[in-house]
Amino acid sequence: MSIFEENLKALSAVYPQMDQLIKEAKEKIEPEIEIIEETSYSGERIIKIKKEDRICYLNGKRNIEEPAQIWVETVGHLATNSPVFIMGLGNPNYLKKLVEGMENRIAIIIYEPSFQIFLDFLEHVPLQRWMEKHLMVFWVKGLEGLDDKAMDDIIKRILRYETLRHYRKLILPNYDVLFPEEAVSFLRMINEVTKDVTVNYLTQMRFANVSITNLLDNVKYLCDGFKTTQLVKVIPNDIPGIVVAAGPSLNKNIQELKKAKGKALIIAVDTAIKPLLAAGIIPDMFTIVDGKKPLDLVQKESAKEIPLVTAINANSEILKYHTGMKFFYNEGYAIAEQILVRADWQYGGVDTGGSVATSAFSLLYKIGLTRIILVGQDLAFTGNRSHADGTFEKVMKEENTAGFIMVEGNVEKEVPTTASLKIYLEWYDKYIEDILEREKGCFRVINATEGGAKIKNTEIMTLHDAIEKECTKEVDIQECLGRLSPMLDEESRKWAVEYLDDIPDKFFQLAGDAKKAKKLYGKLDKVCNKRNMDSKEYLSVLKKIEKSIKKIESNSVVYQLVNETMVGQRYVLLAEQFEHEDSVQAEGKEMAREGMIYTKYVSEIAELFGEYMKELREKESLEEK
Amino acid sequence: MFDKIENLYQSMYQISYGYLIEQKRDNIKLIKKIIPQIQEFVLWFLEGNRFEIEEELYQEMQSYLLQVLEDITNAIAQEDRVLLHDAVAYGMMEYLKMFMDSKREGTEDVNI
Question: B93-111 and B55-78 helices cross at what angle (nearest 10)?
């Protein structure tokens, strides 16, 4: 069997069908480069690449080993599961030295922008033993199913917050010369994922405590609530959707919105509610996502009955104050999913994009609207103001924007913005680009903000013109919504109430299981403290621990909530997992220490939540009576 | 000339260090700046067999040095960082080191 055939076998053992994909691509792909073989001064095979007018070596001809050897030495010791991203296989020495030099099993993610070089590599470098030693993921341009989007998902799975400080990346020399665009996109993808991972972590840290208590407070509303996916049934898709955000430019054209009433689906963000009502405009719906948004922003009698689109963990005070229809989307909380799946309607989520306006935008797209008009979506401090008048203050004050990031504007050449607003701006750029690709251009976004930052792929228009051109059909949104019944029928509702009554016991069960697991970790510590450790006993305790942890994790409805509350603790423990101990005994002791801390937190938090939910259910039951 | 050789060696060492250890990819720009010094050394070496090396070996060394110089020139023209590093670190610097070593040996002799 040739090296190539052996490699195909090894690859398809780990990635089923990969051999087939490679064979198919081999037939289809047009050569873009020429691979020229040479022999180094010491007799090894080396290659150089001819691309257009340029010829570049991928290996040196005088010393093919040292650059790769030194790179691996600079990488140093890598803990188990540390991710290493490499662009390029044209010089296999880098991969060889890395694979051979790392004792712990690491995750090597290889991006090869040339299918021809990938084939050349498969023909000359035996992979099987390397793939047995480490996790190797190949991402090859031109190979079906391994496009940038697939890679983005893989990187997200591998690059978690706890692995961030352990990851390494390398672009093989001359790949940045031969494949400059691919090199930039490779780096950008990694950088974007690291940025997202960090932002998510910080957001989780910020919201961890309020988020879960809000969720426990709000989950009861699901019993009589609606799902966002129900909107598809009743909202005609030939009308435009208008997202009204609360950026400073809303001051300029808020009055125009009156003309759009009854001719579009107008959805406002929470902060825009007060200025809209003050201007005599009642939006068709409004939306909240933030667990910490103050009630004061929407505390108006006339806001109470406006249909609300909400995250299940949004500020519970607002949900309590609001008495109208409540629409929920699926955010992946098992406790809510159990109820959502009982509803006889499809399973659906919204891409939040991190802000209330981006989630409103995503909602309008997901319910099938093909024209979306943005209003007050500045994503910048237009006129040095953060929000429209009438939001946080009657007249918003000017702020000092010196030192802010400057971005291209819709009206002004440049506008000042903050790092977090820029993340939302980038989200819009990418999200709209993806939609346009998916919908093959049958989707339009009109930015009628009349100020603020420029969003790519949007048509810039005044709100006056946008309404005149797009809002041409009459529609009664309240009549449409009135046709909907709550997502749960009577029988499912009864089931849901009983299910929620049972939640406190689930928490107490979890607390009990965590206490048992803590005892087992204590036992593990004792076993490891003995001078002559009994390895049989050690393995037996480990097995019991594994069983016990599985039991804890199987209680997913409540374990997920406890786990999310422990963001900080979880990070510390997960990051420590990557540190290496010298002996099995030392590792066992460390495992016991971490396990005892973790299970202690789990049992304490589960107990607290159990008590909280018990009181809540008793109070709700009394109120109902 | 020996001081010049030592300076040239130091410059090349820094560039190669950046390439290998810090993964810097600016060796073309930096080597371009020291091309006059490289040319001066090559001419000096080719001008005569100053160390009275065996003639056949000297001819081979001349030819190899010209090959190194050609690789450096091609690498700059093609923006080929791999070839440039290879020619500089494992070609030119080996030559420079040889003269530095011989100078050191000479110094040691005097001291002795």
Answer: 130
